[in-house]
Give the backbone structure.
Amino acid sequence: MRDGKDLILATRPFAHEIRWKSWWHVFTSLVVLAAGYTVVFGTDPWWSRALGSLLVALTLGRMFVIYHDYLHHAILQKSHLAKGFFTLFGLFMLAPVSIWERSHNYHHAHNSKLYTSSIGSYPVVTTEKFLSSSKFEQRVYLFIRHPLTIAFGYIFMFLYGMCIRSLVNNTGRHWDSIIALILHVAFAVVLVLFTGWSGFLFGFMLPFLLVLSLGAYLFYAQHNFPGVTFADKEGWTYASAALDSSSHMKMSPVMRWFLANIGYHHIHHLNPRIPFYRLPEVHAAIPELQHAKTTSLWPWDVVKCLRLKVWDPVQQRMLTMRELRRAMATT
């Protein structure tokens, strides 16, 4: 059984795009996205427009994963057309290149590393650290990981976290967040003026709420699931962080298409240069990658992930809120 560096080396033959396939996936995704917007703005029944909103949201989710692959240099490098398109798409999705690239690359380099993994990811502290924190710090920590905060990822993760907070912290470096916010508001105003409040609701608010809620949850559950492990700097390795601290989220074929195989997240963390459309191929070809820790989008698995709060290094597992309260009662 290969592990560590040998396993990473085994994935390298797959870390090459098939150029026409990359463009094909971008083009077909845009066609489906256009179909969704056509339903939203070209039909009258509210339920039809709601279905169109759902289609738009899911397809934007697919496009976001493709955008994320582009920034990992997995697809369409040295293409001026791709660079221009994905730069605009990042602004449209409130995830400008300067912010997403910096925070996400840091996340890959420090995934599941205690005390340094919270940049570009959800914070995780040990039981001891949580109990020694002030009441205010505890509330902030629990608020960030609260299911409602994740559900409103549009507001807390993208609008505030990606754009407003980054802009306030470093305006010179993240000037593109200003453009993202201006374009976002302008898009909303144009929809209200030309399509009315119903167009704003079905063409803007619902799609963004749905896709960014899903995106925030995926980002959470990919590294916060039953069986996940966290390590100190001394015991941390890149390969173990990928295989033990990144989930294989099992999905239906339909959801695998809409989310561009992001469920194979353990493989993506092992080698982010593998194009999304080759991840199933890697999974089938390398037996060591077929035994990853799993979760899913079924409600019971979502609840199991959302219940996790702090890391207990003694028990080597995440504790639930109920278990955390017991620990707090004994201190």
